[in-house]
Amino acid sequence: MNRLQQITVLGATGSVGLSTLDVIARHPNLYQVFALTGFTRLSELLALCIRYLPRFAVVPEVELARGMQQHLQAAGLATQVLVGEEGLCQVSVDTEVDTVVAVIVGAAGLRPTLAAVNAGKKILLANKEALVMSGALFMQAVRKSGAVLLPLDSEHNAIFQCMPNNFASGLSQVGVRRILLTASGGPFWPNPSVDLEHVSPDQACAHPNWSMGRKISVDSASMMNKGLELIEACWLFDAKSDQIEVVIHPQSVIHSLVDYVDGSMLAQLGNPDMRTPIANALAWPERIDSGVAPLDLLAIARLDFEMPDEQRFPCLCLARQAAEIGNSAPVILNAANEVAVTAFLDGRIRFPQIASIIEDVLNLEPVVVVDDLGAVFEADARARTLAAQWLNRNVR
Ligand code: NAD
Ligand code: MG
Hints:
Catalytic activity: 2-C-methyl-D-erythritol 4-phosphate + NADP(+) = 1-deoxy-D-xylulose 5-phosphate + NADPH + H(+)
CATH class of one domain: Alpha Beta
Number of helices: 16
CATH architecture of one domain: 3-Layer(aba) Sandwich
Shape: globular
Helix content: 40-55%
EC number: 1.1.1.267
Structural class: alpha/beta
CATH topology of one domain: Rossmann fold
Pathway: Isoprenoid biosynthesis; isopentenyl diphosphate biosynthesis via DXP pathway; isopentenyl diphosphate from 1-deoxy-D-xylulose 5-phosphate: step 1/6
InterPro entries: DXP_reductoisomerase (IPR003821), DXP_reductoisomerase_C (IPR013644), DXP_reductoisomerase_N (IPR013512), DXPR_C (IPR026877), DXPR_C_sf (IPR036169), NAD(P)-bd_dom_sf (IPR036291)
Radius of gyration: 21 Å
CATH superfamily of one domain: NAD(P)-binding Rossmann-like Domain
Bound molecules: nicotinamide-adenine-dinucleotide, magnesium ion
Function: Catalyzes the NADPH-dependent rearrangement and reduction of 1-deoxy-D-xylulose-5-phosphate (DXP) to 2-C-methyl-D-erythritol 4-phosphate (MEP).
C-alpha cells in the first residue's frame, strides 16, 4: 500500500483551509495532516489540532506559542508548536511533506509558498496575491525546482481542467484562442441602483454565491478579485492579458471557459463550493469524492452572461493596466489594495475610495524591475507607505 500523503495547510483556520480539511477528512486512507497554521482564532486552530493530530502547528508569536503548546500537552497531543514566518517556511519545506496547501490570505503567504516551490513540493495555490506579487520569480522557481503547481482558485482550476495537458508549450501551440474568466459580479452587480458611496463592510461581504474570508469578499464586490485573477491566469497559463476576457456570469455555475481555434469552447461547471477544486487538485490526475452535491441543471434552468461595468467597478481596469505594465506594477496594485480593503473593513473609508487609493498609489509609485524577492517586498513596502499616507491625508 502507498504511504499516506503528508499535507501542510498554510492558513488552516480560514475559509479555504477549513474546506481543505473537510476534503482530507473524507479520505483518511489517502491523506494525513502534517502541519496546520493559524494567525488569529487560535482556539479554532487548537480544535483543529485535536481533530487532525498534526506533527506541527504554527502561530504568529512566541507568547501565543507557549499557551498553545500547553493546551496541546494538556490534551495529550505531541504536536509541536512553531512560530512566525520561520515556522511557516519550516513546515513548507520539511522533507516529510508531500503537498503544501497555500491558503493564507495576502502578501503574508508569499515567503512560505515560495519556500515550498523552491523545495519542489506539490503546491495547491489559492493565495493569488503571492502569484500577483511575484509571478515571474514564482514561475521561474516552479520550472527550476520541478514543483507541481495546481490552482485552487475555482476559475483557474476550471481553466486547468479545460486545458490540454501540454498547455505549457504555449496557448497558440495548443490551439487556444482565449480564456474566458467568469465573474459573479459580487453583491452589488445585480442592483445598479445601490449607492456604492454608502455600502457597509457587511453588505460588501455578503456574497450572493460563495462563502469566503472578508478580504476576498470585498475584492469580489469591487471586482478587484477578478483583476487579481486575471494576473494570476496570465502567470499560470502563460497568457497575455489580452488573451483573457472577463464575463459576468451571475449564477457562478460555469467556473471559467477555454475557447479553441476550431470553435470549441470547453467549460467546467459545478456548484459554487471550493471543495470541488480542492479535491480536484489534491487527487490530480485522479478524481476523489469532495462531498459536493452534483449540479442540478434543471433547478438552475438558465445561465446568464453580461459584460463587466468598468465604469462602476474601476478596479478590474486598474488590474488589467497593471498586468500590461508588468514589473512592479502588480505588486503596487496588490499592496495598495490590501491597505485599502483593510481601511474599508475598519470603517475608515467609503467603498469607492478603494479604487481611488489604488489609482493614486499606482500613479505615484514608479514601476521598477523586480528580479528578486527583496525587490518585491521593497516595492510592496513603498506602496503600503504611500497608501497609508493617502489615508492620513484624506481620512479624519
Ligand atoms: P480567510 O480570511 O478565511 O483565511 C485566511 C487564512 O490566512 C487564515 O487561516 C488566517 O489565520 C491566515 N492568515 C491571515 N493573515 C496571516 C498572516 N499575516 N500570517 C499568517 N497567516 C495569516 O481567507 P480565505 O477566504 O480562506 O482566502 C484565503 C486565500 O485564498 C486568499 O488569497 C483568497 O484570495 C484565496 N481564495 C479564496 C477563496 C474562497 O472561497 N474563500 C476562493 C479562491 C481563492
Ligand atoms: Mg476565484
